[in-house]
């Protein structure tokens, strides 16, 4: 029975929440429809367990689909129960967590089930930007149901049993499951931008618990702050030599070296996630050129350019942070745009979305230039010209229109190599040095890498009370 601990749906809830904190609601609800022999079928809780509990003392509301009841399919009462979870969460200002394990829409209930699915969509849309929404796919999640995790702020998939797809792999022309399992967790994590992490059931539950500790319960709480025992002036060694992998940089500057990465397998040339500085949750967006494995060996390498996927990933994350009053830190190391046919089809729109996201965000915004910062790609990455409150730069950073040698070749196309070399040095000194940008007010402070933590702590403390009046418009359109 779904209301007992023998149900996987209930076991997942119990493992996620603080001990003895779960309170089930609506356990006596069953399917209302009697068509097509449903009256002869036992439907305890109509295949979904709902209720509320605590994660590290924080109130959360939760629903968990039970695949042992009609394969976890969504029917009229099933959907009404999920909708009621959202109603309660919105009233209480608390996150919603959904565990998905569902064979789709219940055929026996036809349009009633379809209407129920639409009700879930409506509740998710109303909750977007008001309370955090987190989902995890532990079984099947196909067709229209994939809209549910895609509309959530964060989503995880169990690596072996989790399946997420709009169209099943074998229904896609020219494809089959053996050729490319488009429903598999790894494919979804890398390609769709809908997945924040994959792993075993226990790993996912642990990730959700950690994620909740970074998030405010709702958009009216303001930024989340807790006590910090870490040294605020702690020196961060080796940052300069590891600037290519912002995961390392962010872990080093963060309180207790904790960095929670989001969408970690998708668009890996752009890193997003959460850190704490002096106990305050900070959203981080960073260009990435290198990825190191657990043994410290270089695993992947990327050009320091903006890609369409990277821009879309970052824009979505910045929008989330702005909605929930989470300050934003950007680490900039970019010199241009990805040049390929696939990227070119989407790049202009994606760049516009990221530029809009940074420009429109009213939360505290700090930009740290760690390497190259050239051209309009740099402008898009949270530059002072589009609204960054403070811009810091490491002493070896380069800021300007483009690489000095390339600029010299363009300006002195017919000159000798010696002249070009001389003019490149002159251009670098006058137009591309971090000191030149600082003299013009585009950089507020030049710092050494090992002092990064203390300066960023001080920056966000100063910006803690930032207030920006809303403009007279309903909303933007990007």
UniProtKB/TrEMBL annotation:
Keywords: Transferase. Gene3D superfamilies: 2-enoyl-CoA Hydratase, Chain A, domain 1. The keyword Membrane does not apply. The keyword Cell wall biogenesis/degradation does not apply. PROSITE patterns: COA_CT_CTER, COA_CT_NTER. Residues 1-254 form the CoA carboxyltransferase N-terminal domain. Residues 231-478 form the CoA carboxyltransferase C-terminal domain. GO terms for molecular function: propionyl-CoA carboxylase activity; transferase activity. Transmembrane segments: none annotated. PANTHER family: PROPIONYL-COA CARBOXYLASE BETA CHAIN, PROPIONYL-COA CARBOXYLASE BETA CHAIN, MITOCHONDRIAL. This is Carboxyl transferase. It comes from Roseburia zhanii.
